[in-house]
Structure formats: C-alpha cells, structure tokens
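During the reporting period the student researcher (J.K.) took over the structure-prediction task from the postdoctoral fellow and processed the backlog of single-chain submissions. One of the processed entries is reproduced below for the supervisory committee.
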Amino acid sequence: MLERIGNCRIVDEVAAGGMAVVYRAIQDALHRTVAIKALKSELCGDAQLTRRFEREAEFLAALQHENIINVYDFYREDDRLFIVMEYVEGIDIYDLLDKCGRLPFDVATIIAIEVARALDYVHYRAVIHRDIKPANIMISRPGGVKLMDFGIAQDHNLGEDLTQTGTGIGTPSYMSPEQILGDKLDASSDVFSLGIVLYQMVTGRKPFIEDEERSVMNIIRLQPHTPARKLNPEIPRELERIIDKCLQKDPKDRWRSGQSLVMALQKFLSKYVEMNYQTRLVLFLKSQDVLTQLEADEYLSPKMLAMGNALSQSKVQARRQMHHAIVVQGAILAIAALMVGLIHLAPVGAKVPAIVVHSEPETGFVQVIANPWAEVFIDGVSVGLTPMAAPLQLEVGGHDLVLRNEFYPPHFETLEIAVGGLSDAYILRVDLDIKEQTEGS
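J.K. obtained the following structure tokens:
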C-alpha cells in the first residue's frame, strides 16, 4: 500500500471498486483527515478512463454544496492519478439498508430531500450525475447527507461526452429508461434514479427486479412497478404518489427538477416531522446502533435524546391504537351481520330476541403539532413528545390539553373530539410563544 500522496500520509484503505481505490489519510499541513481516491494503476494507461477521472476532479472542484463531497486537491504522481477530498465518517445507504431492511418513511424522505437538493444544484450547472444509487449516498455521523461519486457524470457545458451515442452508462438497477437506451439525458433522469432509491428505502426492495425471462433493464423500460404501499402499507398515500411520479416512464411526466421534488417532499414531510432534519437522522442512527450513546450525546442535547425515545414509544402506541380500532370495527360488523341473519331466519310475526351490545366508547383522533416541540398532556396524563408518529385516539367529548416545553410558558387548550377515523383527525398546530400567559397568572 502507498505510504504518502503529496502532503498526505496514508492511514489505511477504506474501499475499492472496479476503477478506483479509496484511502483514509492525514493531511499533515492542516492536521485533518481526508479521503484519497486513486485510479487503479492497471487502468492508468487507458486514455478514456484517465480523462474521465480527471473530469470527476474538475466537476467536484467546481461544486460547493453542503450535500456534495468537497474536493481539496488533485495529484499526478508516477503516472498515477489521485483526488484528495473530504472524508465523511458515517454509513452509506447501501450498508444502512443491509443493516435494517428498510427505513422509516420520514427518515427516507429526509434523505431524499437532501439528495434532491444536491441534484438541483448540479442540474442548474448543466451536470447530470447518472449514477444515483444507495452506495453513492452517505449519511455522516452528525446527520448530514452527502452525494458522492461523480465519476460518470455528464457536463453539458463541455463539448465532449466520453460515452458513445446509444450506449447506456450507470448501474442497471437504478437507470432511467432513456439512460438504458443511451438517449440524451436531462435532470429528469436523475429524478427517476432517486425515485428508485426512495422506493427501496421505504419498502426494503427495488421497484424493478429481473426474473428468469426478462432483464432488469427490459423491466425498467416496459413494466410498471408494484405500488409501494402494497409492500409497506405504513407508507402514506401522498408519499406513494410522489414516488410514482418519479418513476414515470416518460420523462415529461416526472418531476421536472430537483427543486420541484424537494418542494413536494417538504410539503409532505411537514405533517410528520418538525424537528431539525439532521437531529432526526442522528436519532435514527442511534436507534440502529450506528452511533454509540456517547456519539449521540456529542451531537444532541438531552432533550433531543428524550424526544427520540418518545418517537419510538409513539410508534408503538399508534400501532396499538390501529389494532384496537380494527378489532372494534370488526366486532360491530359481526354483530350487525348476526342481527340481519336472525331477522331473515325468524318466522313471520315472531319477535326477534333483543341483543344487548356493550360497545366501546366512540372515539376520534387529534394530531398535535407543536413548534418547536412540546410534551403533550391530555387530562393531566403525559402522552408523549411532539412530533408524534400518529394522531392520538381519544374518546368523544371534551379534553384538557397542556403543552409543556421548559423554554416556553405552558400552552393550555380545550379539545372537543368528534367521532371519526384516522383520516378525519383534527389537526392542532401551536406555535409556542414566550408572550403567552404562564400557568396560574
């Protein structure tokens, strides 16, 4: 293994692919950890691959965005090529999915928003990434999201393209139909690929999978995908519609830009997450043991850690509430069917025996959204911290609600709950204000 590259001291090899090897190194002059991507020595004689590697360095050096890996330097030593870039300590989406199967829909949406922001930035500069896939998306330990590997990116500002016309280039399972055909690409091609990644994050599987009769590229071009909610019913319909629009075969039917996708995802996510996005990602990484307790403590305040525990509890509570609602509705339907049967079977003029039904109390739902966050008390009992994974199920009638946040005066509210299901939930939005009257004043 190499010992030094320029003013960088090699520590170890962290990754290797078909074209390049990535090392972790220390840049002695600035005492910082960097990543060094080295084109494999046996490929340095290939003029096309060499030019592509150089252009990747040029692409990244010209891009300055929080969701894109930064390039610090470029070296040519002994006929070898090296890119010195930002070192991101964390986990890529490929390994994260391998670890936990699928991601909570809010976590997956946050990741997709950050990648879409990076894409909107590069698309504005006439660059198409062409290789959006889980292995090229990294979540850093402090909760940042980074898009990596611009090795096959296409820059329309340059007159040349190192791909022959009619040749598809990229990772087959994540390519758009027009990319497979080798057609001219625009921003919507990367949007299609990101839609595949988002689908995989929330369902645990890719939307297009080859079988014995058809290749994955043939299926992407000609076959519809299975709706995401069929694989994971917990996915909200609004998110499923956003994914479906990403995966339209005709580029004209997709989101036309990264920004339009960002706006749609943010509008959706605002109903479920009001905390800082990086905080939510750190809480999730901790729940999956990607971060230790000490590392989470470094990035988050104790209040944020407590909120993470409340998020987990509220999801369990939501599942129990849903199960309870299904059982109650099933019992009501069974009793109704029994009564209809008795009426049809009884002789004419006979009295149908009375059936005494001890039904459950009528209930409704309320979704409490507090900005920035609050502990929620219903009738004096704590029911968790906002943001909550699901609406609260309460008996019909009046209830006393109190929102408490140690940095703001408490907020008092009287709720009138009407009969209804989850889809009819009353949404209560409260912006905690320092000017509110304090309790007892």
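The committee noted the following: Residues 36 and 84 are 5 Å apart (CA to CA).
J.K. will present the remaining backlog at the next meeting.
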